[in-house]
Write a structure and sequence with these properties.
Elements lengths: L1 H16 L20 E6 L11 E9 L5 E9 L11 E2 L2 E2 L28 E3 L2 E3 L36 E2 L21 E4 H6 L4 E3 L10 E9 L2 E9 L17 E7 L16 E7 L2 E8 L2 E6 L5 E6 L2 E9 L10 E11 L11 E6 L25 E5 L1
Parallel strand pairs: 1-3, 8-21
Antiparallel strand pairs: 1-4, 1-5, 2-3, 6-7, 9-11, 10-20, 11-12, 12-18, 13-14, 13-19, 14-15, 15-16, 17-18, 19-20, 19-21
Amino acid sequence: MSRLHHHRADLLVSLFVSLTVANCRPPRPSDTSGHTATNTVTNTGTVSDTGTGSGSGTGMGSDTGTVSDTGTGTGSDTGTGTGSDTVTVSEPVTMTNTAMSTDPICGGLDQPCCAGSSCNGGCCAGGRCAAKSSDGTCPSVVDAGNGGQPDAPQNNCTSAIATPCTGLPAFTGSQTVDGNDQEFCSVPSFELNFNNAASDGGKVKVYNGTTTNYPERAVARVAWDATGIHAFIHVIDPTYTPATSLDTIYNADGIELLFTTTTSGLSGETSKDSSQSMHVIVSPPFAARSKASGTNGTQEALPAGQFSASAEKGGYKVELQLPWPGTPPTAGSQIKFDMELNAADGISTNGDLGPRDAQAILYLGSDPGGSPCAGELFPYCDDRLWCSTTLQ
């Protein structure tokens, strides 16, 4: 009879554990949480026990552990001392919780977090679980252009913060362009959003409306090697509006990555500098190489092997493997680099009068003289406005 009693206790513990909900699970109550339960148990079984004796009975039981349960049950045990056990148990259980812990458990770093809750190994910042700052506080918005902004890295990956306008790290290993970021686990990250762009010299261009407060935020891991630029960019966007065509890809929600192979000899126009300059725009499912002549530009479809782009709940993700547009630079070389994040709220129908509300800009330099941007400076029409960075 003692073996069947222990088996019922094990089943009650298993049933309690199964009530945990994935991602935003209910908390584990402590011994003093006030958790109560009423259990109705019916056991049927045939048991052969080594020993002597047989018995039947009814009883009240109290199980102690992480939860305090009270229950009533009836049972019938019969046994013969042959040394083998066969048990069939049926236990319907009704459980009522009267008190809960105040420490809910949420996802890991870079996973969505529950409002008002903490995260495993971090804190809830902007709807994502982020690594805490060195002083133990939740990260705050800081300058994007200098690369000091906080990030929410994947579990078990580097928490180092990149400074893309100071240096780009070297890419190690090999990349498979499949929308999976596992190859980027050792690459430091940086974040671009409308708050840190606006606070860094007002680097936000507004096309529709007057506000600069948009929820879109991009967490980017960008590195280089002899073959070109490798990037994985995760964009958090609660109302993603995709491009409807390649020609108007810039006028939807999307990400833009810009780089050169040198800092000298640039004319400003990417169409003229195409042998040294690369400007890529991605709005899943489209990806284009953009070549600007002043304020006008043309879009060419990016080869399929160079990108992976897909929408997901709450945003989209972009993976890029882009060849150098000219002679590959080497470690220690300086190149031009920039990134832009587009925010949109509708379907593109009429150029800049379409849905794009605003654009957050990582870096915007001063007029180098003779800019082709028709009196208003934009990275898309002048590659000399991009920041100079060193290949590490």
